[in-house]
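User: Hi! I'm working on a homework problem where we have to compare a predicted structure to a textbook description. Could you give me the structure for the chain below?
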Amino acid sequence: MVLPMIGVKPREHLGPIRRFLVTHVTRRMIRVQLFVCGFLWIRYEGKRQSHRETPVNVMAPHCTPFDGFFTGGIVYGSPMICSGVMDSIFTRPIMMLTEAIPIAREAKARVKIGEEVLKFLKSPGKQTHLMAFPEGTCSSGRSMICFRRGAFAPGVAVQPIVLDYMKRPVLAAWTFDALNLLLAAAMHLSRFYTPLTIRFLDPYHPSEAEKADPTLYANNVQAVMARSLNMPHTQHSLDDGKLVYAALRLGMPSDVGSIETGVTKSALGLNTDELTEQLVRYSKFNSARNGDLTLQEMTSYLAWPIANHMERMFGLYDTGHHQKLTFRDFLFGLVDLSLAVPESSRLQSDALKLLQADGGVIDAAGVKALLSEAMSNVSDEEAEVLLSRWSSLCKLDAGSPFTADAFTTLLSGSPEYTALIHWTLRGLDSYPVNEEITADDEPDKRVHTAKE
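Assistant: Happy to help. Predicted structure tokens:
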């Protein structure tokens, strides 16, 4: 395996001698390794098309650490792999022999995946298929998870290839935060024989609509492949696994984080880290940690004493009138709230005129003056509780004064308080578009805590 790669550079096409060694020697060595690992007999169904007719091959489901061997040693092609795989001294040689394309998982890098694929397909000297596991991660093999769009972005024909384990449980399923690579391999080796059928499906030629929309193309191919295995398919992805795990760590049911993250991210313009941040916020609102946020819990967390304001806010979140909010409701409610009441420097200025006492420090008397704009019988205790909550949210030390800067920080991280203060000063039926917008006003944000 080492001999053919001497002098080979990453992404360099193999010459005729090296290609002969890979095709006729290395592949047979890999097949022997798979035999030792329990793949005694591998069945093949269908016919594989040439790389000229179907430049891209997509394989699924992806559930074992051995899938890369199927790509390089059995179904020869140039795989799209996580860039970290090239850093390992154990996997780097075979990945270079297969002319692998390393892909970074970072959100910014994913935008260029389509360009990388197109560059590979048009490169001179290419004599292999581009191989992709469009799920982008390993799963349990019980359902075909969301296909990523990178391999479908060029809009060329693909040939789907399904890995059929004959409905036997995959002991070596290498899923998120479940088994490490060595343990997954060890569990697989404990089984004497693992049945496998590699099935080549008919080439899939995209329609004009699919060429224009790689997501549609990916979803349709996913449905075809799942149907061939009589397997369910879903839009859940690795990001859902991360959110589910985050929900469990927060002491919440696992289904709280199961929100079809790919669809949600596309609709809201948020990345996985931002969704996780919002999940943490949601857990603080939902004191029962049961995934059903109520009006009473929201009122208690915000410590806002004006009942009709809280009812109005909860109504913006609870569009289905269920009297409780799931995490998904919470996310989309934040968007509606942020669009209805965007941040305004003028609003902050008007609020600070009522809040600030001598020396620019905000005290309970100032909070009471602000609340009195919309409620006549505000008690000193209600004002003190609200000020204490503000200090807690800004993570101020006990006894530290609450200043104008802290108030500005509070509003920038909490669209809820921005809305409540807006309704206090302008009334429930007023809208920011009726105000004079100054040059200092910040542009509308979908979710104030989201990073640009």
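For your comparison, note the following. Residues 16-36 form the longest helix (21 residues). The longest strand covers residues 158-164. Good luck with the assignment!
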